[in-house]
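dumping these here so i dont lose them again. two proteins, back to back, each one seq then structure tokens. dont judge the mess
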Amino acid sequence: MSFTLVQQATPRLHRSELAVPGSNPTFMEKSATSNADVIFLDLEDAVAPDDKEKARTNIIAALNDIDWGTKTMMIRINGLDTHYMYRDVVDIVEACPRLDMILIPKVGVPADVYAIDVLVTQIEQAKKREKKLGFEVLIETALGMANVEAIATSSKRLEAMSFGVADYAASCRARAQVIGGVNPDYSVLTDKDESGKRETHWQDPWLFAQQRMLVACRAYGLRPIDGPFGDFSDPDGYTSAARRCASAGYEGKWAIHPSQIDLANEVFTPSEAEVTKARRILVAMEDAAKAGRGAVSLDGRLIDIASIRMAEALIEKANAMSAK
């Protein structure tokens, strides 16, 4: 292993991340009883300019008056290029001890995160805030993706990154048809077979971006979270997108509609078979250590240190779900 050891972000259950507009108090009340692991109350894209100040007031009341249970509560502030951002941070952080995290949109360079960190740090010191806030950043522009590794090390508050596919597609001028979906034109054509027939194989236009962000997160101890799937009337499409990310190593996915919450939780919950195997790996490791054996094997296969760490991470996640 490298001599450089990276500290892992604050562990949180993060299978589903529900977006709730701050301009709708009814939606906020309903979301509190949902199965979402993480909820972000939105001040940005889901709120019209004329409603920004009212949404801020709504969110302060909701965070202070609603019982959110054990959910991780987050706000998505407006962008650093707007005049709404500083009041989003100051008003809500000063007034809401229940707040756990801030979601920073359209992060392009490390200095964007640094700016919010300075502001939050001063508020925490001035108000003697006991709970230190965490950050999640949205990588949703070409600039952000180009600087994703540097952004990953921009603040000790940083816990997670989300891939914002809609704005990323716009930034890259991609011809997306459904937010988070695929395009039949993004495909490859096979050579002709003996009968002259050719087949078309659809490709995933987001694979490179998702993998690059994933690697940056895992290299620097952050949680990688996939962003929205726009067609909430297509549960199969949502589930397919979630499974692709889960198999690659993502920890969760956004839900822009309550119907997507349970889909995300199911996909990103380890199966009983996976948990059982992970426990067996750890038992085999303990038995080998007691016997003084350097090599660890299970079911005829050698278990390396990577397998052990993967098993430990899976068990930790399973225990967090049991506690919930």
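---- next one ----
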Amino acid sequence: MRAALLHAVGDDKLDIRDDFTLAPVGPTDVRVKIKATGVCHSDLSVLSGVLPMPLPVIPGHEGAGEVVEVGEHVTSVQPGDHVIINWTPACGSCPNCVVGQPFLCMTYVMESFSLARFRFGGETPAFGMAGCGTWAEEIVVPWQGAIKVDPEVPYEVAALIGCGITTGVGAAINTAKVRPGSTVAVIGCGGVGLSVIQGARVSGATTILAVDPLESKHTLAKKVGATDACTPDQLMEVIGSLTGGQGFDYGFEVVGKSASIMSAWQATRRGGDVIVVGAGAMDDIVPLSAFSLLFEGKNLLSSLYGGSDVRRDFPFFANLWKAGKLDLESMISSRIRLGDLNDAVAALRGGEVLRQIVVFD
């Protein structure tokens, strides 16, 4: 089996090899043949060490495929089903699951740091990113990590729903609960930022500002729903022209940097909501004063995985796409092969591309 392996943080190249094997399918596991997987900034964060993972690791977490084997206790899917990979499987019984926050479940996340489901070079163990490792031809996940999807949804579209769409659209719909007629600023217009823009559009926001230093991204941002666009150095001027200096009802940060969190804070009106969507580093401290936190009356919210219950939201987002409410095809920069992943990672580091999708035969 082929897969792309990261031996150590900071390696210049992924080791793309064909001698991988999978651990046997357990009674509550599902084996999935990956058909499409995205190249996401979170994958880049694993390569750089911003998101810590056990090593060696097969990156990839945004994927979709076909079920080829299930454990004896699995009833949710069967061989032949099309599924989207859920990189945060919910156990259903921990305190977060019980109170309706399955996106915060840590049961299988913690297990992924000790359970190596891959072997290479004979018996050398390898881990999968977030317990997945979708930059491989096949993976084994808990049954909660394989969510059935309508087979009419193309694998490339289903893969996007597995992370970028759920994270971004979910941040607007589930976390912020954007109201019709409201104003929204989105800092960062990569794949997730564009998804936030689409979620705000679907929710009925009337002013949606896309903020990104690359003007090449402004046109696409407007295509998928932004009403206006600017570079970060123009933000304060645009706050004046679009909101009369009051600020936006919602400010989304989709970069994962303290500086852009502060930009979202400054762009949001008093009493508005600031939503952190980007995955940042543990040592990147946000310099908010206690005075501002209280007297500006803003709500600082985190949105992990779009605050989603994927059993509900994966089919919901797929139906929005089928109804023409989400433009997912425009977000795919290119379709590539597994052997092209080193070039794809280099392009992602360059900042110009959105979602490159690895397509498997």
